[in-house]
Structures are given as C-alpha cells and as structure tokens.
Amino acid sequence: MLSATVPIAPTPDFWQQAVRLLLREGQPLGQALHSETQAAAALDFSGVQLMVPAFSHAQNFKAALARELRRPFIAPRINTLSGLLAMQVPGESAPPSESERLMQLYAQLREHGWLKKMFSARRNADLLPLAHTLLALSDELTLALLPEIRASAEGEQAAVGRWAQALAQLLEPLAPSAHGMLSDEAALVWQVWKTQLDANDRIVQRFDAMLALGERASLPLVWVSPTAPEPLDAAFLATYGRHQPVRIVTLDWSRQAIAPLHPVYLAAWEELVAGDEGVPPAFLEPASLPDPDPVPVPANAPALSLPLLCPAPDLESAAVQSAQIVLRWLEQGKGEIAIVAQDRVTARRLRALLERAEVAVADETGWKLSTTRAAAALAAWNDLVSARGETNALLDLLKSPFVFPDDPDRADRVMRIEARLRRANIAGDWQALQSAFAQAEDGADLACITLLARQAARFGGRKTLAQWCDTQRALCQALGMENALRDDGAGEQCLLMLDDIAAGQGGLEDSFSFAEWRALLNLRLDATSYMPPIKDRRVVMLPLNGARLRRFDAVLVIGADAAHLPSPPQETLFFSNAVRRELNLVTRAERQRQQLRDLTELLCVNPEVVLCWQTHQDGEPNPVSPWIQRLELKLAQQGMAPLRNVHWQAPLRKLQAQRSSMPAPSAPELLPSSLSASGFGSFLACPYQFFATRMLRVAVMDELSDLPEKRDYGSWLHEILHRYHAHLREQATPLAARPALLAGISEEVFQREMQRHPAALAFHARWQKVMPAYLLWANEREADGWQFVFGEQSQSQALSWQDGGIELHGRLDRVDQNAQGERALLDYKTRSVASLRQKVKEEDDHQLAFYGLLAGGAIEHAHYVALELGSDKKTGDAAAPDFLRKQDMLKQQITTTLHQVAQGAPLPANGIESVCQYCDMRGLCRKGAWL
C-alpha cells in the first residue's frame, strides 16, 4: 500500500490546511467526499482511522472539518495510539509494575560492593536512584534499538556493533587511567539492558501489540504528528502501510516552507532547518503519487506578529507582572489563554496569585505528587521514624491536616505539645518525649505520643513491599489519616499508589529495610504526577511541547531566560552526545532543535505571545534566552523595529493615611487573676508589654536548640542543690563525706542529661569547678547557724484592694532558718557574687522582695547565691539591704498600680531602648512607626 507524507508549514490554520489536503481526490477523506452515493446523504468518514497526538487535537480536527464541509458528516474514527492499544485484547502475561521492576534490579545491585564504591554510595539505599537511572537508560535504548533488532536476524549483532563503536568513541580522547571506570559503567548499562529486554518488558510488549495492530489493519490510516515518527512508531507505520494506505500529516520544517512565511525566524535561527530530516525515507512521498498542490498563502495574510518581552527584576515581580498580563487578557475577552511554564517556581507563584484573584488555572502538566500536602504527610511520618522521634519532625507531622483530623481538641493539643517540648528544650527521642508528658495534666497528650511511638516501632526490621504497604496503611488508619486522604484528590492518589506497589509485587520476595522502603516511596512520589481537577479551561498551564498543533488567543511564556530556554541538558552517566549519536538516541542538539521548533511554532501560530523572565536571580544577572538575543540581533541587522517591552502596573488603590501614635490600651476586664515576679517585672519595664503577654496572653514559642542553654544549666543545679541539702537535713553527714555526696548527685543528674544532650558535658565540667567553692561557702553558712528548711516550693499570697485583688505566686529556691527562729530566703543565680552585689543595690530590683511577700512577711533576710566563680575563685552570697522595708514598698506599689489598671488606667508602650531591643512584642506596639 502507499505511504505518503502531507507536510504543512507551521501556520495558524494548520488544521484547516490538513483537512483540505486530506479531502482531495485520492486522499483517505477525499474518497468519501467524491463518492456519488454520498451526494445527498451525510458524508461518512467512519471508514478512515485518524490517530492524533492527544485527544485535545481531535476537537481541532473535527472543528476544521465542519468549517470546511458546512454539511452533516460522520467523523473518522479518531484515537491516540495509546488509546487504540488499550482497546486491544491484553496479552497473556502482564508486564511487571514499575515498583517491582525497580526493586528487582535494586536487589541485584545491592549485592555488589564494588558498585557502592564506584558510585560513592554510603549505604545500600543510595543505590536505589542508580537503579532508577539504569532502568531509564534501558528503556531509552529499547525504544531506539528494538525495531532494528527485530528487523532482521543480524539486528542484534548490529546493536552490539553500535554499542562497541559508541564506547570506542567515548574512550578514545580519554587517558588510559579512565578507561577502566567507564568500561565498568558501560558493562553495567549493557548488562542491565540485556536482562530487561525480554518478553515481559513493558516496551517490548507494547511494540508487539503495535505490530499486531498493524498486521490487522483494515482501514486507511491518517497519522497526525508535529514531529517525525519515533523508531517504534516508524516500525508500526511501516507494518500498517503494508496492508492499508497511510498518510502522515506533519509540520514542514524545510527551508522552502519556512522561508516565505517566517523569514525573520529562519534568518535568526538557521538550525530550524537541517537537511531533509523530519520524515524517515520510508514515508517520503512516492513518485507514483500525485504531488498535491501547496495551499496558497492569502495575499491579505496578517503580518508576522513578533513576541513581546516582559523582563522583571525578581521572582515576585515576574509573578505579579505575569498575573497582571493574564488578568488583562481576561478583561479583553480572551477565552483561551496558555501559560507555558519553563520556570516552574515562578509558575507556581503565578498560579497562587491568579487563584487569589479567583481565576482557575487548568494545569495539563500537573505537579509532582511529592509536592502535595498529602504526600508531605506521608513523608513527615517517614522523617519522624528515621529521626527516631526528633522534635521538629514530630511537630511537622502533628501539624499536618491529615493527622488526627477528627480530634475536636486537635489544635489545642498540638499547641500544648509544642509548648511543653520547646519549654523543656527536648530535642527528641521517643523515651524522652514520653517522659516529658508523664506528668502532663491532660493524659490524652501522653496517649498521643505513646501511640506514635508504638506505631514507629512497627517500622523496624525488614519486610517485603506488600508488608511495607500494609504497615503504611495500618499507620494511616491508626492516625485517622485514611478518610482524610480519601477526601483529598492527591491523598486518594497516594493511597492508590500504595495499593499499586502492594499489588505489583508479583514474584518479588526480597525483603527491604525501612531506609530502602522510604527511598522507594520518595522515588515513586517524585515520579508520579498529580493533576488537579480541571473545571475552567480559560487559562491553561502547560509545557512548551504541550502547545504543539494548538492555537490560543494569547500565550505567556514564564522563564524565557538563558537558564530555562532552552532547557538545561541532562546527561546520564557516560551518555554523552557522541555516545547518543552512535546509538541512534536523541542528542542534545536534536533535543534543543526540537525545542526551538516548538518555540517557533508557538510564535507563528498564536496572535499574541509575551516572554517573561527574571533579570536577576540570587543577586546575579540572569540574561534573556540566547535565542531571543539572536532574534533581536537579526531584527537590528535588517533595520526592523526591536521587540517591544511591556510593563503593566497593578491597579492603584488610594489609601487614607493615618498617623501612628504610641499605643496605650485600657482593658480592666483582662486583668489577670495571678501575678508572678517576672510578670510584675514586665509591667515595670513596659506596661504595654505586660498588656500583650499577661493580659492578651500573646506568647512566643521558645526555640528548640540542639545544645542545652544556660536556663537548662540553672534547672539542673536547682535539682542538684535541692537534693543535696534535703539529704543533709534528713541525715547527718560529716564534712568529709559531703564532697562525695554532692559529686554523686551531680554525676547522676548530668549523666541523665548527657544522654539527651551530649553537649551538657561542658556544663558538667563547669559545675565541677564550682562545687568545691560552693561547698566551702555552704559549710561556712551552716557554721554560722543557718540550717536548710525547705526548697523548690511553690508559694502564693493574696493581695487585695477595694473592690478587687490579685494572687501573687512563685517558687522559692530555698529557705534557711537560724537558732533564733529567723528565716532567710536564698535565690540561686548562675552569676558571680560581684555582679549580684551590684544587683541588690539597684532600686528596681524587686525579685527578692516579691518572694518575701509570697511568704507572708515571715522572712527577715534574703540573699542571692552565686553559682559562678568570681575573680578570687570563690562563690558567696549578696544580702538584700532593708529587706522588710522593701517588702512593704513593693506591696504598696503592686496594690496601687494594679488597682489603677483595674480602674481602666492606660498601659502605654513606654519601655526604654534596652527593654525594647529584645522585646518579642515590638511587632505589636510598632515602636519604630510612631517614634
């Protein structure tokens, strides 16, 4: 049968020209058109098979056919090749799933230690990306060489010869020392490909189905494609052409076709045309077939519209400018707008801005499933297991909307858990997490942590893929994630992916560790695309090759810079251009030429195209694409107007300026019922700070630190000294035995903490230097008649005024008593005695007096105790002067000021700079805006 091409230049009326040519006498559709029996009836083209690249092209063809005929007709049988193959009877054996295929190869690779050394893999799981790469290379080789191998008995030998020639070209320019490594890589790729090339290979089965479909050809075939047929497609068309006529409708990139229509583009980009490439010789128009007359270009054809440029200084500006352009097009009534996303990062920001403006974006490419919130929830769990209960990983998981979604107290629980962990500075570890919540007021918090720890324990050991899937699904049920994932489009896809992995295990019985399972899951999530439901197609986001054979009212290209256009090459292992050329694989030059043709078609077909890019990235200049630079140069050489820049400002909004002033709120109804020493200190430092932190209860979460902080050190010393002095109170201990007692208690506390924070060793060494001096001071104080009474005890005292009152509360570090019954309050400070003696002289130091009020006036003396060595290598204490008088003054001050607050007194933000410098509430009072 006759096989012929119908080449058509890239113009806006491609489909119309294709229909006209196919309706000519002697063409597949022309036979029905010129049949006498069809003169009065509806035209029947159902006896022709039409194959298009995508189903969206079917509508373009039928619309063009309707415009040309202007009468009723029965359309041809339109399908894609994949759609037609899916309608055939499946083979006896299904190909292995991608997961089974990948893990089978990985299980073989991990048995070879030399591979880990060659590819610098630190653990077995690091070989999983290598297995994924090898399978991708194997598939590429199969697509290129399989038709040649099947063509004749010598085909396999020809493929071996190609491989040897490609390897020889690769090794020739290299030093002999590099030959061994590359030869090993080559042998690995070749061996993997040979093992994959069997009857169970997915591509082999598809090729067999294509050939079988071609052998059963019963209808004339019209093959529409913007590019030349790939090797497998060419073999299918050759087989089909032996039984039925085949017409290949494709874009004509010959010089004769391009020069009259697009001379500027051809002059700027000469590589658009490359000899007679584009259609294999088997499909060139035979001499016996009448050469169809070219469709004439109308004399009144519109002049070539050049693209507009939209340079933007940064990512946000590029996204805002792009959003304004799209919104302007919609206001103009354009109903088919395309966004070509070369720069996916900027495209995501653009999509967010459009959705904020209530403009839906139909994404035909989709996003990696790993970028969705549902996949992030699965990844967060795997991160938590891998980190063995690390706190940040735990909080990331708990904050996922898919975890415990039916818990009515979920938000408050997560807040309580985070506050407790940050306050205690717990870096992680399941045992430490459970210990932190052992004394929690709400037992449900501990139950939550315990449930997570119990589930994490199930992710140990080695399991088959099916068992890992079952474990992951059981986790989803235990955490209440199952229904939440099912109600989410991406979540449903994640669950289906787990089911596919489990069902596709086939004969794979190897077991895998959690690290290997996690690596597989991450690979699958990255390789799977998620496409949100499309409800509105006015604005479509697609890749550059997705715009082939399509026409839009306007097109916006995001990422027209040198980094994204052309797309950066991706060479795998040693597959350089020379190797690819010998193996008949697509080279970098061929890939870039096709991308340039896609760009040229976009510019030729669509009436309005805007190219947008960031002129700077990370502080460095980011030039426009070299293709655009060459076009601008050619325009200048030919004396034509340069490409025009567009810059559309966002609509201006007039805002009424309001003068800022110092905030001074009044909120008597928010006066707290209790007050601590630090709370009153906040009131004295800045009333507005007190208002925000104590009355509004605005709090800043403590930062988690991998290293223990000074406050942790202070807490450990409080525990050590309380246990030490309580022991001396209960059991008489001679002076000689006291150093060992204090050292033993200290060692017990610090060993416990060093298991959680190894960096606590520095504080341990620090305390060991202080202990002798502290013991000397403590023994001297005991010799002076002071005995330890109690320590680390919470106290409270009511303070009242007319029509109101407040409860003072706090925790006393230590109270001593002498033989005369006098009591002394001691407050430990990890500071030197010299600085503490200076502190007690300050008039605004009220901490000791406040603690005295807590005891109801029953304490006559107060001291700060230094737990740091001074310049004389000693510790000591600093006594508060006029302690009883200071208590009376503080009591009067608290009563007076808080009574005024209760009466509605304003609380101004009048803190001094030293207070404001580190104040967490500065963002609320906005001191810099009004001062």
Structural account:
This protein starts with a strand and ends with a helix. With 931 residues, it is α/β, with parallel strands linked by helices. Helix 10 runs parallel beside helix 11 (231-241) and helix 30 runs antiparallel to helix 31 (738-756). The protein has a 6-stranded parallel beta sheet with strand order 8-15-14-9-13-10, covered by helices on one side. Strands 18, 19, 20, 21, 22 and 23 form a 6-stranded mixed beta sheet that branches. It is built from 38 helices and 23 strands. The radius of gyration is 39 Å and the shape is elongated.
Tags for this entry?
931 residues; alpha/beta; six-stranded parallel β-sheet; six-stranded mixed β-sheet; 38 helices; 12% strand; elongated
Residue fraction in strands: 5-15%
Rounded to the nearest angstrom, the radius of gyration is 39 Å
Assembly form of the protein: single chain
Number of helices: 38
Main structural class: alpha/beta
| Strand arrangement in the largest pleated sheet | 8-15-14-9-13-10
First and last CA, distance? 89 Å
Point out poorly predicted stretches.
Answer: 276-302
Largest sheet, strands/sense/barrel? 6 strands, parallel
Number of DSSP-assigned strands: 23
* Helical proportion, percent range: 40-55%
Note the overall shape. elongated
Average pLDDT metric: 86
